[in-house]
């Protein structure tokens, strides 16, 4: 699913400006029928996954984080002014015939993180504002963005999704069905060690920066690859899917000692909050954690959405009790 050499390859908002009826809570797929080494995804399994297209061709993944916002990678947009060339496809499982649940949205603007400095550098995140809010359906739903208090533990099994290449050599065969792959989180010291290995084979050592997160396998074989860039790495925390990372880069795809590298969504919380002040961020354990997420700050300006926020805190424990 990623790209060649140092390949560039994203997070979100849980509730749109309309606040959050329980029915539009982030990170909760409604369809419960539910990459390199990946498997076909099911219809509605990853309802936040989007395909970002240029002149009708898929070039990057992304995730819906609010009704009008998509999180993706900065390296997907060498020129953020060309908004008229871009389209975002939502609610699709396959790209050849996206089907009745899918819709295209036009792009109003692209905000790349100003700290991004090119391939394999920090801050490889961008926010895409859609021309109009999209209606949430069983197939189009936002993922949750984690509050900075959320820690994705080493070894935790998360999922990466995309329409990228199934290997460095091949393209995904038609009809281009969304692929899913489970990958464990690798801690940064270990990942730095892996990326410093095999320099005798001509690899340049690469540094895993503070805002990066590694996930995948030391032995390679399974990974994101070209075309997956900008797509989400999501982890199930409690009852909700939180976006831990944005697919950013790797050295080749699924090579030994070269796990996938993602941009940590929590590291860019302030930047995201500045661009989308109303976005709410999910604390580590809904309901059980009393720390006030920063995402609630905007509620002071507008009291209307505060009721839904509290509703979520109350509803989640209720759901947990039914497990
Ligand atoms: C867009 O695609 C059409 C048809 O595939 C092609 O003829 C055209 O040159 C493309 N335009 C750009 C700007 O790439
Ligand atoms: C970016 O795209 C805009 C609109 O098409 C164009 O005017 C501008 O020259 C482009 N900038 C670069 C650096 O290519």
TrEMBL record:
Region (Disordered): 283-303
Taxonomy, superkingdom: Eukaryota
Coiled coil: none
Gene Ontology BP terms: proteolysis
MF term (GO), any: serine-type peptidase activity
Keywords for this protein: Disulfide bond, Hydrolase, Protease, Serine protease, Signal
Domain Peptidase S1: 35-277
Any Pfam family matching the protein: Trypsin
Signal sequence, renumbered to the chain: 1-22
Family matches, as PANTHER family: SERINE PROTEASE 27, TRANSMEMBRANE PROTEASE SERINE
The protein's name in its UniProt record: Serine protease 27
Species name: Gorilla gorilla gorilla (Western lowland gorilla)
Annotated gene: PRSS27
